[in-house]
Amino acid sequence: MRVYNFSAGPSMLPLEVLEKASNEMTEYGTSGQSVMEMSHRSKEYGAIIESAESLLRKVLSIPENYKVLFLQGGASSQFAMIPLNLMNKSGKADYVITGQWAKKAYKEGARYGKARAVASSEDKTFSYIPTLNSADFDPEADYFHICYNNTIYGTKFYELPETGNVPLVADMSSSILSEEIDVSKFGMIYAGAQKNMGPAGLTVVIIREDLIGNAQEITPTMFNYQTHADNDSMFNTPPTYAIYVLKLVLEWIENMGGIKVLEEKNKKKAALLYDFLDQSSMFKPTVEGASRSLMNVPFITGDEELDKKFIAECTKAGFVNIKGHRSVGGMRASIYNAMPYEGVEALVNFMKKFEEENK
Ligand SMILES: *Cc1c(COP(=O)(O)O)cnc(C)c1O
User: Is 278 a catalytic residue?
Assistant: First the structure.
């Protein structure tokens, strides 16, 4: 029996996608082979990667002057690739510290240039998005980095910083494809695939063309965006199977009516859970209303023993991976695109019952 998996990543994939992949596992179309066995330079595979890119462009309305790159190394490799490729004029960059991922990006940035923390919410365990004032931004910065959705702490940017001519770079690992975004507001967007796009092993970069081609001299060939842009992500073997599953996920999104439909579903799911948390006398959300993520919902009871009991009973009942990140404690329900409304509804009903039984 399949469980409701609230993992922060790798996380649930739509059952339809898994079934389609399963049906095509040993033979893709009439190719006589699995996608896993195909040459990445074959005609069959060429059609798959092209279709993945064109679907992504369509679903996110990516403008013509942006490249889509299919890379490896996770979002974590981007923490280095970004400064190596973009810190090339003033050698300075601004970062907003809204969680552990943002901090890691900032620390890595500081290894290659002058990274500056513009604002931080660490004073309150990253439970909010700090107010940003563009007067504090460095107009000479080569880029301005944010982590758009903070997976561990459950916060998200509802308003983008006004960075003027400074390109805005966003880590969207845990929110990409969950809501409509205006790509033209960003210089670059990147995401590890394993939360909302597909299996681990694929990293997607969407980057404005004029930002490519000026990497620092020390940049390894494989870390240079130009290498991958010039070769349509085929400089070396791309993560072929993960790209294929991304294609299936994008078809699933298209078939339901696109990102707008998905966004409405995600808002309904999140509202159901937050509304319950806001009125519960046992479970409390850890994030302020104005910064709440639609994807990752941390909450606590305030009693560690009770948290433990709840997590154990959840697991038994088929609600798995609901334990919070060790830096926050308590619980975290990650409700990505593939989590159905029924899954959140079942969890809320289970929480109501638990609260009743443990008064
Ligand atoms: C998961 C995550 C990462 C790390 O991704 P890897 O692909 O494991 O390197 C970075 N940033 C955010 C926002 C994440 O959610």
Answer: no
62 & 34 share domain: yes
Q: Which of 203, 234, 255 is the last residue of a domain?
A: 255
Residue 327: pLDDT band with limits 50, 70, 90 = confident
CB of 307 sitting under 6 A from ligand 1: no
The domain that holds 167 is classified in CATH as: 3.40.640.10
Which residue segment(s) compose the domain that 167 sits in? 15-255
Query: Is the distance from CB of 266 to CB of 273 less than 8 angstroms?
Result: no
Q: Is 171 known to be catalytic? A: yes
Q: How confident is the model at residue 16 (pLDDT cuts 50, 70, 90)?
A: very high
3-state SS class at 252: helix
Cis peptide preceding 10, ω within 30 of 0: yes
Are the C-beta atoms of 42 and 210 separated by less than 8 Å?
A: no
Q: Is the pTM of this model over 0.90?
A: yes
Please identify, by atom number, the ligand 1 atom nearest to the C-alpha of residue 74.
7
Q: What is the pLDDT of residues 153-164, one digit of tens each?
A: 999 999 999 999
Same domain, 29 and 150: yes
- CB–CB of 155/127 below 8 Å? yes
- Assess whether pLDDT exceeds 90 at residue 1: no
56 Cα–ligand 1 center, Å: 20
- As for how many domains the chain has, the answer is 2
